[in-house]
What we know:
The protein is of the alpha/beta class and 237 residues long. It is built from nine helices and seven strands; from the N terminus they run ααβαβαβαβαβαααββ. Strands 3-2-1-4-5-7-6 form a seven-stranded mixed sheet, sandwiched between helices. Helix 6 (131-144) packs across helix 9 (203-212) and helix 7 (164-178) packs antiparallel against helix 8 (184-197). The N and C termini lie far apart (40 Å).
Amino acid sequence: MNDDPNHTPSSGEFFAAWAIYRSIIEHNLMRHDELVGALSDWWQSLLGKPKSILDLGCGDAHVPLRAFENFSGDYYGIDSSVEAIAIAEASMADVGWVSSFHLSDVDQALRKWTMPVDMVFAGYMLHHLSDQRKATAVQDIASLLEPGGWFVLYDIMRREEESRDDYVERQGQLFIEEWTQLSMDQRLATKHHIETSDFAVSPNQWREMAMAAGLTEYACLYRDDDEFWGLLVFAKN
């Protein structure tokens, strides 16, 4: 993994990282199954389904395709990987979703996006931003939402009052000692990535940023017992 935000990964780098990503999903190491289940339950509970979704850091669109059953509307995916977008496009075509994809740095694309949407969806992406940029990103997201729209976020999240250093140490220990489904080289690469590129905050910190941006109706739909991962939903009235 190259942690330079301006670096364009080669195909070899992509597929090395992709192998880690697919193993993480296959073995449910970042609780994708639980996240999809919680998202699906929430989606089914909505009386009025969103008609437009902006997915920040969409990757292969694995989660929305599983969670948002019978979605009927416009899906917009942003990602910096041409290979991941190609996989997402093929998957969307298979199920008949109306979709368009934008190859771009997600942070830059969010700054420039002007089309209102009913939902902004961000999975395991926003923790890469600095805390200051997270706050302005949430403001950008709030400005894009239609009245009654939703900001749906799942991400790595620290415990309340836990420092970044303590979180990184705790998560690094998890990778090395418990993610035995990955090779040691893969575990070390993942550990290096979080040490250099991940800036997780707690659920309450996300809530404070969302409230400051004018969003309401905070709900935590999922939090694992060890408090590594979380799923939050905010509404725009």
